[in-house]
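W.,

You were right to be curious about this one. When I first looked at the sequence I had no strong expectations either way, so I just let the prediction run and decided to look at it fresh. Below is the sequence, 318 residues in total, followed by the output.
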Amino acid sequence: MEPADVLHEVPVLVTQFPSFSHPQTAQLYQYAKQSCGRWLKEVAEHEIVSRNGEFAACGGLYASWVYPAGDLERLQVVADFYSAWVFIDDLIDNTTDMSHIGNLLDDLLARVSGCHRGNHGLDFMHRLFTHEGWDPEVLRLTKAEMSHWSDCTLALRRIEAEQRTVSVEEYLSSRQTNAAMGMMYLVLVFTMPNLAREYLQLNQSAPDTLRRVFSYCGRSMGVILDLYKLNANHAQICEYSHIAKIIQHNSRHSLSLAQAVDRSVELFHEYENKLAIELNEVATFSPRLAQSMENVHAGSITWLNVMRGSRYVKKMDS
């Protein structure tokens, strides 16, 4: 009999929504590879998290799946930020030194506010937040969401540093924001500026609907990210901040890791079903906005499945 914590395979999670990539995906991905080679390589190449980091794919390829109708020039700016942000997030996920984490987050938020931090490459890759094409109110909301992401990321790393067992709800209440889908929805409006008016009107007239979209999408995305990192050959420290392990820790009865993964998969589909209901509500206000928001969610999951075998691997070592 195998040990209870052995898991040979993480199942492929498939979204109920259709997904589409940008017609210039290849061009955007090539841009991201060249940009990462020029601006990110020097600071990232000696870090352990760069092994299987696939930062160009986290920028250009990801942006092409979540913003299939986005403006190409704006998507290049977004791709640079996403590549750099994932690198910084990986550094955070691979340490429990809270002082170091605080410094990484402070530098990130300073760049978001428009301040340079002495590394020209990273400063350049954060130019998204000083781009003149933003609607001012959408930019304000985006910066506020980025600050919220930082707070939730810090809370999750504190759980890991303290080796503290938390409930599934306490974990997901932070993970839903840490999964960064609120940011993805706001940056959507930057990539498609003709959505700004509709988004801001929805935010004013039905803020609870948007809050639930952020929550349910963030929770389902947090679950799939956790599961796809479970057997990944990618440096991270997540014994106390991983959905399957938290389910194991909180179970009244002994659960194998495979059983905890099965329950996590159920949670993924439960939250995606709730998201579908909320997106239908958005569609009654603006079908175009609802479709674009659906693309963000579905494209994220499709991209994760594309990345199985590289950043996210399929099987445990025997």
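Here's what jumped out at me. The CA atoms of residues 43 and 119 lie 9 Å apart. And, maybe more interesting for your project: The mean pLDDT is 94.

Coffee later to discuss?

I.
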